[in-house]
Amino acid sequence: MTSNLFRFNYSDHVDLQYLYDYILNTIVSNYHVESEIATQELKQHLHLAYISYNHIINTNARSHNKFWIVDDKVFYFGSHNFYPTSLQQFGIIVDSIEASKILLESYWNPMWEYSAKYNFRMNND
């Protein structure tokens, strides 16, 4: 998920293909996983989308924080961007199934419901 400059957002637009390529290249180079294997795993487990604010203008469902969750039990919530920046960054990693469930139900699921499902074709397909 990333902010979309063209949807009432003030942050830098980050193309989802760029983000996917960055994640793939990091896995291949840092963890010495073959590109084909990493690609198959990402196809199965990685979901990227923009949050669309067009449908929720009259609600309080807005967010600029950065968030990721793994296996519905560990999550990060903070300000650190995926791209390099010289800003001071803060965040917290929480390892709790109970806290993750609360976060999913009260925060993430409502945001994801309004996400613009961006179905992009990866360059290496």
UniProtKB/TrEMBL annotation:
GO terms for biological process: phosphorus metabolic process. InterPro entries: PLipase_D/transphosphatidylase. GO terms for molecular function: catalytic activity. Transmembrane segments: none annotated. Residues 59-86 form the PLD phosphodiesterase domain. This is PLD phosphodiesterase domain-containing protein. It comes from Candidatus Tisiphia endosymbiont of Sergentomyia squamirostris.
